[in-house]
Amino acid sequence: MPKGRTTMHETKHDRAIRRRAERMWHDEGCPANRLDDYLERARELQAIIDNPTAGQLPNPMTAHYGQVESEQPVEEAEIMENLGEFPSRLGDQGDHIQTPMTRRKARNFLNGA
Length: 113
Known about the structure:
Blueprint: H1 12-27, H2 35-50, H3 77-81, H4 103-111
Helix pairs in contact: 1-2
């Protein structure tokens, strides 16, 4: 459909989309044979405006009341120290830290103890 013309069946919603598309098309410098691309973009923008939460997944944490247990238990960093480190071909045991330091160990390290 040529620019600026409307049909009898075009609704107010469709006219708003067409106006938005033409405005975007003009802002981009009126590229030849690209008005249909701008119409599609304007339809998508209007759909987002009409249904702002349509693309959002529900938060599973809000679906439950109270405490939600995680699938795997979270372990303290101190537990990882007990697992030890096995020497490899390129290094000896204790060459590098496998896990983050606990707060107590980090304080001792920073204080030089």
